[in-house]
Amino acid sequence: MAGKHYPINKGINKSIVFKGLKAQYIGYMGLGLLIDLLFYAVLYMLKVNTYVTLLLTLALGAVIAVAVYHLNAQYGEHGLIKAMAKRKTPKIIRSFSRRIFK
């Protein structure tokens, strides 16, 4: 009996691609689905109605999947990291003293 086989396409010096997700987005998807599982467990322990719990969990999972695939399509392999780094760079550097240049 053989289980399902999910191919992970990886060439030399290329990033991992799985079901259309590239590089770090695979990890983001895994983390998002883990959070979704914990959300389900919390709702289950709070004795929320089973159908409401399933509906909310499926909705959250769909939102996570759509968001991760959107980020993957918009920014690509390294673009999200570059965009986050660009946001942290200052727009203007002011110096009121020449002491730092001496």
TrEMBL record:
<dbReference type="InterPro" id="IPR025407">
    <property type="entry name" value="DUF4133"/>
</dbReference>
<dbReference type="Pfam" id="PF13571">
    <property type="entry name" value="DUF4133"/>
</dbReference>
<feature type="transmembrane region" description="Helical">
    <location>
        <begin position="25"/>
        <end position="46"/>
    </location>
</feature>
<feature type="transmembrane region" description="Helical">
    <location>
        <begin position="52"/>
        <end position="72"/>
    </location>
</feature>
<keyword id="KW-0812">Transmembrane</keyword>
<keyword id="KW-0472">Membrane</keyword>
<protein>
    <submittedName>
        <fullName>DUF4133 domain-containing protein</fullName>
    </submittedName>
</protein>
<keyword id="KW-1133">Transmembrane helix</keyword>
